[in-house]
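Appendix B, example 12.
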Amino acid sequence: WFEDENAGLRAQLCDAAGPCELVGRSHAHRKLLQQVELAASTGVAVLITGEIGVGKALLARAIHEAGARRRRALIRIPCGAILPGEALGRLAMADGGTACLDEVGKAPPALQEQLLRLLQDRAGEPAGEARPRRADVRVIATTALDLRREVNEGRFRQDLHCRLSVFPLEIPPLRERLDDVPLLAAHFARLTAGLGCGPPPRVASAELERLRAYDWPGNVRELRAVVERAVLLAREGVVTFEPLRAGRRRRPPLANDAAAPPTVAAAAPLTRDELRRIERQSIAAALARSGGKVSGPGGAAQLLGMKPTTLASRIKALSVEKPPRAAGMRPRA
């Protein structure tokens, strides 16, 4: 990703990502992954909160895919743009799996009542059906609204809020985890360029610092859009972030300014040893997930987005020990 660090960042993203490509290395991100693991190990309702663009839907999918219901459906229900009967029909489709109540804070009163009944009795009345239908559904809700305020102002049912927030999980905004910006940018650049084993687009350190200095009001979603645009417009493989030159930057703290929010220090560049360690762990994690399989469908090379020959070379160069493959073992879905 740095002009002199391209080789070390080719395959490190898998380990940094964790489940469902949750990319990051900051303390806040590591804490978030621990919460995802804990939430996935239970069947209770999860309420994911955070600003627009932080990745609430991605986190919901990560919890689903890391849990016992990962082989069944994950059904998204846009609570602010669907009729109650239709919503319960989708919940029936999620039987045995997970229902993601997207932006549950925007659910109208009739849908809130139906959702409460589902959580209490595990039953609802889909449109066109006279009798309640029982459903074994794990519920994960997301919202950018402050549901406590919505409850206090009478727009959201307190009993439903209590049912949904058994396991509350808040995603911090990007400006509070700036250590994750380089990895996220590298990840989005690799996806945009469609890279397999070649070097990622080159970015000067000054451009990387420009990313760190920006306030990111649109969070990860805005970062992805900026990186995608920059990669598509890159000349001779060199990426610049022109739109950020006049963009909103974080205000430095003023002397004796008690009201000023604390600033976050810029992240230090990754050392070569750190990059090798991340790459080694990335490959080891992919091999463990694939059951030791390197090539073919579900193999570690496919998981990492690399050519099998390239992965084999990196395994040898980094002395990565492959796990033994059990007879008849299949990669985890």
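Confidence is low (pLDDT under 50) at residues 1-20, 251-270, 326-333. Residues 15 and 282 are 4 Å apart (CA to CA).
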